[in-house]
């Protein structure tokens, strides 16, 4: 039995060749979550952002498996309030405009995860990662 078969038997998922770009609005919560979530999701490369300049720069700079809009950002959008961390170009955007930008820069196959409820986050990210292919090269991360 090889190592991959053993991992499957033990139900260990390896997402180390996948990337999640997260857009949140609370820097402290984003950093805390970024330290915990990779091990919960099979060692995925998880990159948090809390402002649009950083988010858009990262969105343009590489391919992502999943784009995640954190619960706080989703709650602001749900009540038609500006998502903290916006800039001149994104002032007043709702998640609809962010989704359009993500699809424009990453293509229609990109998985986008949104939730208002923190307790759903890990399961939704797991499901989204299951639908994606590896995008990081084993030899050149």
Describe this structure in words.
The protein has a single domain (16-130), classed as Response regulator (Rossmann fold), CATH 3.40.50. The mean pLDDT is 90. The chain is an alpha/beta fold. The chain has a 4-stranded parallel beta sheet, sandwiched between helices. The two termini are 28 Å apart. The chain has 6 helices and 4 strands; from the N terminus they run αβαβαβααβα. It is 43% helix and 13% strand. Helix 2 links the parallel strand 1 and strand 2 (45-49). The chain has helices at residues 3-9, 27-40, 52-61, 71-78, 95-106, 121-130; strands at 19-23, 45-49, 66-69, 111-114.
Please describe the topology of this protein.
Elements: H1 3-9, E1 19-23, H2 27-40, E2 45-49, H3 52-61, E3 66-69, H4 71-78, H5 95-106, E4 111-114, H6 121-130
CATH architecture: 3-Layer(aba) Sandwich
Order of helices and strands: HEHEHEHHEH
Count of beta strands: 4
| CATH topology tier name | Rossmann fold
CATH class: Alpha Beta
Distance between the termini: 28 Å
Give the CA-based shape.
Answer: globular
What is the spatial order of strands in the main beta sheet? 2-1-3-4
CATH superfamily: Response regulator
Class by SSE composition: alpha/beta
Determine the fraction of residues in helical runs and give it as a percent range. Answer: 40-55%
The total count of helices amounts to 6
Radius of gyration: 15 Å
- Tell me about the largest β-sheet: 4 strands, parallel
Determine the mean pLDDT.
Answer: 90
Residue runs with pLDDT of under 50 for 5 or more positions: none
Number of domains: 1
Percentage of residues in DSSP E strands: 5-15%
